Amino acid sequence: MIRPHLSVEHVTRQFQIEGEPLIALDDINLDIAEGEFVTIVGASGCGKSTLLRLFSGLDIATSGLIHHAGTAVSEPSLDRGIVFQEPRLFPWLTVEKNISLGLLNSKLSNARKAELVREHLELVGLSRFANVYPHQLSGGMAQRAGIARGLVSRPNVLLLDEPFGALDAITKAHLQDELQEIWAKENITMVLVTHDVEEAVYLGDRVVVMSPRPGRIREIIPVKLARPRRRTSSEIANVRDRVLKSLHATGEPPQSAPEGSQPADDGGHLERAVALAR
């Protein structure tokens, strides 16, 4: 058994809303292998974004443990980059300066920081826009800048919270393909939260299906399809239909998901990454 890169063990997150307890996540267990691309899908309010914040260290579980590379997650780290639905770029800073904020707490030299910023501007196709301000960017370009900022510290995990949710369909599809290429080139673990079932299936090695409040994992569905994938393929449609069926199911979530509950083997990730990088 390969040790998981990210692990969630019996995690519960409870909030107090107007003096009343609200359980956002209830007894979550999940292992993610190094280099895996996992997508988390569910209806609004199911706790998927809360789970991502717990992974990042921006929030702390009420009970249970989260580990990254064997170390307990208790605070944010440069080893875990995060990208939000809104790019959250500072309007008074250029694209280059916004991306450099990802290195604010880094101990690297200024020369190395500048080099990394240049590399990541090139990685997301924004080299020509380094000195442009956010209001001069399209929505897709602004989201590329947000992704570059999440990657510039060279994290080994990138967490994405509905990064394409506000984009038009054509821009979204283009950035989904670019994200897969970045994943292949950077060889990092990615966890993407979305309410878009097609996006979850198209991008993920596994799809984690969340049930609504209290948030629980209903099912973990493997996507054993070679990359690059065709959006219109019957195989994609079959997995999408299985995810939709799981989302619309009622009653108690399955207690186990034999096919997808364990991380996929590293060889499979390498094979898919090589195919994408060609």
Present the secondary structure layout.
Layout: E1 6-17, E2 20-32, E3 37-41, H1 48-56, E4 63-68, E5 71-72, E6 80-83, H2 95-100, H3 110-123, H4 139-151, E7 157-161, H5 169-186, E8 189-194, H6 197-203, E9 206-211, E10 216-222, H7 234-248, H8 266-277
Parallel strand pairs: 3-8, 3-9, 6-7, 7-8
Antiparallel strand pairs: 1-2, 1-4, 4-5, 9-10
Helix pairs in contact: 3-4, 5-8, 6-7
Descriptive report:
It is a single chain. The chain has one domain: 3-Layer(aba) Sandwich (Rossmann fold). The chain is 34% helix and 24% strand. It has eight helices and ten strands. The chain has helices at residues 48-56, 95-100, 110-123, 139-151, 169-186, 197-203, 234-248, 266-277, and strands at residues 6-17, 20-32, 37-41, 63-68, 71-72, 80-83, 157-161, 189-194, 206-211, 216-222. The strands form two sheets. It has a six-stranded mixed β-sheet, with helices on both faces. A four-stranded antiparallel β-sheet has the order 2-1-4-5, covered by helices on one side. Strand 1 (6-17) and strand 2 form a beta hairpin. Helix 3 (110-123) crosses helix 4 (139-151) and helix 6 (197-203) crosses helix 7. The two termini are 30 Å apart. Mean pLDDT is 88; it is low at 255-267.
Task: Tell me which CATH architecture applies here.
Answer: 3-Layer(aba) Sandwich
- Helical segment count: 8
Unreliable runs, pLDDT <50, ≥5 residues?
255-267
The structural class is alpha/beta
Global Rg: 18 Å
* Order of the strands making up the biggest sheet: 6-7-8-3-9-10
**CATH top level label:** Alpha Beta
Q: How many domains?
A: 1
Oligomer: single chain
Secondary-structure element order, N to C: EEEHEEEHHHEHEHEEHH
Mean pLDDT: 88
Strand content: 15-25%
DSSP, total strands: 10
Largest sheet descriptor: 6 strands, mixed
